[in-house]
Prior knowledge:
Number of strands: 0
Helix content: 55-70%
Oligomer: single chain
Order of helices and strands: HHH
Radius of gyration: 18 Å
Structural class: mainly alpha
Amino acid sequence: AVIVQREQVGILFEPENAGALLQAVQRLDHDEQLRQSLKENGPHAAERYDRVVLAARMLEVVERVARPERA
Length: 71
């Protein structure tokens, strides 16, 4: 849910709730501005939260922390 912030990169709806899914799809169907915003912002979020990118960042942190301090 943190990734999907205020409908900037997606629309949240309650899991296993067909009615909520239908409302989200209908909203996308009727709101051109929202569709365009999601289209533009979605790929940037996908890159930011890519597993490979996150793993590389985590490895950098671990390596930095594990390095002995230099005097």
